[in-house]
Design brief:
Radius of gyration: 22 Å
Helix content: 40-55%
Structural class: alpha+beta
Distance between the termini: 52 Å
Number of strands: 7
Largest sheet: 7 strands, mixed
Order of helices and strands: HHHHHHEHEHEEHEEEH
Strand content: 15-25%
């Protein structure tokens, strides 16, 4: 006996596919991605068992899913929290779509209130002297939990101040500087370390922390290597390694306009 597929079924399948794809985008490049793919395969096998009405296998699969759902929530509570935080950010809401349609013409000229050149100049100077730095620039998602791990600064963005914070004898140099609302909010902050197994071995703790915050939030993270003096970026769970000051300026101008 055949099964008739109607328009409602096609829409249902399409929406489920979009949902799974968006979830995969959030976990792609993290240690959770392989687990997510395994869960999808497990659910597909479960559907096949249900479709062919295999009673014994169906009972086993039902029991595993009922217990497994609770276990997954306990084990991956931080990942789940980050997922819903991203889901609720303006990247995923109708407000961002409307904002892009009715965007103020002043914002369309590629300009932003963020003092990009002061940040780029500080990074260029620190790269020349091989001064290690880790700078997190917040966008839409809150960085409150990470700000509380460091010392509050609450100062205007200034090239000399940034260089002084990361000077090797400064008490705040060991940690991340967080910038929100176009101000240096805190320094010496602790960031989550990425567990992505695909991170190259030659990258150190700064790069792993930068990718960790980029996986958990929509922040832009700048890394200045203490060993090589190169500048890198971590955005949307991915790296941009060895960027020039000109490329850094361009990326900041583009991303801070979104």
């Amino acid at each position: 006996m055949g099964y008739a597929i109607g328009l409602k079924d096609i829409i249902d399948i399409f929406l489920v596919a979009v949902l799974f794809y968006q979830i995969y985008r959030l976990v792609r490049g993290t240690g959770v991605s392989n687990i997510f793919i395994g869960l999808i395969l497990f659910v597909l096998v479960w559907f096949v068992v249900k479709f062919f009405d295999m009673t014994l296998l169906s009972m086993i699969f039902d029991a595993v899913i009922n217990v497994g759902a609770i276990a997954l929530i306990i084990i991956f509570q931080s990942e789940i929290r980050n997922f819903f935080a991203k889901l609720g950010s303006s990247n995923w809401t109708m407000m961002l779509w409307l904002k892009r349609i009715f965007r103020n013409k002043k914002k369309d000229d590629g300009k932003t209130d963020f003092p990009i050149m002061k940040m780029v100049l500080a990074c260029r100077n620190m790269a020349k002297t091989k001064t290690g730095a880790l700078i997190v620039i917040g966008r839409r998602m809150s960085l409150h939990d990470y700000i509380n791990t460091g010392d509050l600064v609450n100062a205007d963005i200034n090239t000399r101040l940034i260089e002084n914070i990361f000077f090797k004898n400064s008490p705040l140099h060991d940690g991340a500087m967080i910038v929100t609302d176009n101000r240096i909010t805190a320094a010496g902050c602790i960031l989550p370390v990425s567990r992505n197994p695909e991170i190259p071995r030659h990258l150190g703790l700064r790069h792993r922390s930068a990718l960790g915050i980029a996986e958990a939030t929509d922040a832009i993270t700048i890394i200045v290597s203490e060993e090589t003096g190169t500048i890198s970026l971590a955005i949307d769970g991915a790296y941009m390694l060895n960027v020039t000051p000109e490329e850094l300026e361009r990326v900041l101008a583009e991303k801070l306009q979104e």
